[in-house]
Records
---
Amino acid sequence: MPESTWIEKEIIRDVVQWKKDMRSAGHYVFGNPLKPPGMTSSIVRNEAGDLEVVEAPVEEKSIIFYAFEILECESMEEAVELAKRHPALKFDQASMEVREIWDSLDLDVLGQEHPDHS
């Protein structure tokens, strides 16, 4: 969400209800809000081969990740439909990224084009 977004108690109640609904339907696995940038966050990044640690907040930020949710779904389409019901999307300019989580990271995930694949 945009950096200046203020989360009201009503939205928090709606998010808690959304989580309860997802849990009742057998979809909810785990999720939590994230502390605001500057409280406990640092950014570790690779700058031309050197690891750099930057204490957040950083100047170039304009989007804040407020939370993450993990759902168990049969398909990406189902995950998108469930995400569309999340109360955070009531905010103007809010967005939600939906991604699949790999079950494991092994050579099967890397694919045949990976040089270590046998």
Note: The beta strands are 28-33, 42-47, 50-55, 67-71.
---
Amino acid sequence: MATPGTAIPFRPETEGVTGQLVDVLLVLALLLSACLGAVWFAKKRGWLDKWIGAAATGRPSQASLRVEQVLRLSPRTTLYQVKDADRGYLIVESTATARIIPLDAVDDGDE
């Protein structure tokens, strides 16, 4: 038991706010380096290309649609001719709606 007149032994605080800030920055640097290491490992294994997909490589996939022609019908309406691997479509886009018409349904007028 403490005798009267002696000081209460408090825990000494040698670190201040700067010590806590340094600890937080060290943990942040450790987490950042772990993330960079994981990305480097995934790139080395070829997993990163699969995760990112064809958009990052600049190569379109084989089954992609391509716009062949764009025709402005009015200030608010545009007609697109789109081709897939084996089919074609007409897309009429307006400010309120969009309509897709397969080219098989369009009459050529050659008959």
Note: The first helix runs from residue 17 to 45.
---
Amino acid sequence: MTGGLEPSEEYDGRLTVHVLRDRDSKEKIVCHSYREAIETVRRKNESAVATKIEDRDGTIVFSSDEIDIDDWVVEWEDQMRSLAVDVDAHDCPYGNVACVSDDLCVQCKMDKVQDQY
């Protein structure tokens, strides 16, 4: 068993890490997965002015100017986990829009406990 969720997507050379060293020195590194891109950023980050990850659509999804790579990885893993979760539909009888099947509101939790007895 693995230590966590592993991403199932791989990209055919469409994920690019941009390493900016100074105004005239730029490096583009093609990566085939987000894990590979993250490790590349970690390796190159200390010697670079800025690092960026560009997805296959040309969108910059990470920029070291905006967030630390480790903080970004935590957010990215949370997003991947939430995409992998299959949540049952739940209509809160109390009209609480934040009440979902895997995170019930207080009233629904109390109803659930009462239903068990």
Note: The helical segments are 34-44, 69-84, 106-116.
---
Amino acid sequence: MRFLLILGSLIAGTIAGIYLFGMIWRTTAPEGTTAMVVGGGTPVLLGALTFLGTKAADGQRPSLGNPRTWFALLGIAAAAAGLFVLLIAALFLVVQRG
């Protein structure tokens, strides 16, 4: 169940991140880095908050003092960033083709 919640928050965060990316990109075109940081950071933040807010099978929340928590957060960040970049690339290809 926890995995599905994290996956759902990554997908919702990616959709919100792409929307924020598009809004920032359209209003301030030269600031592409700002758009990528805000758009890419949105799914990472939502995924990490979901992970930290849900309980494990043993009923405990993750502890920031545990190295396994940090590896899980690193994996969530990598998955969110990869999903964001893939969807942005796909979106640009669809828009470019018309």
Note: The CA atoms of residues 40 and 85 lie 8 Å apart.
